[in-house]
Specification:
Layout: H1 3-10, H2 41-128, H3 131-146, E1 155-164, E2 167-179, E3 183-189, H4 197-206, H5 208-211, E4 219-225, H6 231-239, E5 243-247, E6 252-254, H7 257-260
Parallel strand pairs: 3-4, 4-5
Antiparallel strand pairs: 1-2, 2-3, 5-6
């Protein structure tokens, strides 16, 4: 039988007969099987093997196609989730901006309301003559700790009258005194500040330790307080080294501290 006859019967080109090994086996050929004619058993085994490989390849291709489809679906869903998350974040940011604007407006309204309330309270305190007790004294204790860094307050008095230690016939009233271990604050309150008040307060400060000899050796801090102090009076106080304290947005503030502490 010629090579062409074998190709016609087996359907396989480039066919060559395998050679026998010494142990009776076959040396591998190009197709790893010996195909002779369709009627032989080895032909059917090879045919089944070929069909099995082809089926497996088809199955793998189908699985790979399914895998690609699933991956595309996962990517699409992930993109949709990302877009939804970005939309939620954008809405949240917009809500936060709106909330901040509302809070800012509320704070401005409350600040304005506090100013109006402070003004009414100051007017009432001035009319009742209680500016020292209600406004000056509590704030002197606060600034003593917060601004002047008193470690403790060893002495505190309001509207106290003292006689000079070298001449008891000379007496003087002091609006507020706050003493610490190393310094003492003398507070003076006026419901209506005048241009001459800085000079008068400076003179009182110069004689302070004659009335409080037990506080001698400590730094003396003069604080002039009122609900509102005109700028020209603040200038006079600053020129004499006296702190000016007036009502701010929420509480009393030392308005010339930065100039005195340069």
């Amino acid at each position: 039988m010629g090579a062409g006859d074998r190709e016609q019967e087996t359907g396989v080109s480039e066919f060559r007969r395998p050679e026998l090994r010494s142990d009776g086996g076959l040396f591998p050929t190009k197709l790893n099987v010996w195909l002779e004619r369709p009627g032989r058993r080895d032909y059917h085994v090879a045919r089944m093997s070929y069909e099995t490989v082809e089926t497996r390849v088809d199955r793998l291709e189908a699985l790979f196609g399914h895998f690609l489809t699933q991956m595309a679906l996962i990517e699409r869903r992930a993109e949709e989730r990302n877009q939804a998350a970005e939309a939620r974040i954008a809405r949240l940011e917009e809500e936060m901006r709106a909330f901040k604007d509302e809070m800012r407006a509320f704070k401005d309204e409350m600040r304005q309301s506090q100013k109006e309330m402070n003004k009414k309270w100051g007017d009432l305190a001035n009319k009742m003559g209680t500016i020292v007790e209600d406004i000056l004294a509590p704030n002197l204790r606060r600034v003593a700790r917060e601004h002047f860094k008193f470690s403790e307050i060893t002495y505190f008095a309001i509207r106290c009258e003292r006689a000079r230690h070298d001449n008891v016939s000379v007496k003087c009233e002091f609006d507020a005194v706050v003493a610490g271990p190393e310094a003492v604050i003398l507070g003076e309150a006026r419901s209506t500040p005048r241009l001459e008040d800085p000079d008068k307060f400076a003179e009182k400060g110069a004689d302070f330790f004659r009335f409080f000899p037990e506080l001698s050796g400590r730094r003396l801090i003069l604080v002039f307080g009122s609900w509102s102090i005109p700028e020209n009076v603040v200038g006079g106080l600053t020129g004499r080294g006296i702190y000016a304290m007036q009502m701010g947005d929420e509480t009393m503030e030392l308005v010339n501290a930065s100039e005195l502490e340069r």
